[in-house]
User: Which sequence fits this backbone?
């Protein structure tokens, strides 16, 4: 149980770091910067396709719940 809680905390902390403006969602720009910071050089269309796959409700941003699902 403790390991799962740690993982959950880690996911939330990571989400908060990516959410640069603190609006409780990750925009495409924030996601693209994350990928570049992680040295995942991709084209804009590849980044957009990845982002759209994570944004399951297609509202243009990634919520904490969507981020959790992506991290699993």
Assistant:
């Amino acid at each position: 149980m403790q390991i799962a809680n740690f993982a959950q905390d880690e996911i939330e902390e990571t989400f908060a770091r990516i959410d640069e403006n603190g609006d409780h969602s990750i925009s495409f720009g924030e996601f693209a910067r994350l990928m570049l910071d992680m040295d995942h050089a991709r084209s804009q269309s590849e980044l957009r396709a990845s982002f759209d796959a994570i944004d399951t409700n297609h509202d243009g941003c990634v919520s904490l719940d969507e981020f959790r699902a992506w991290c699993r």
The helical segments are 2-18, 28-37, 44-54, 64-71. The chain has a mean pLDDT of 88.
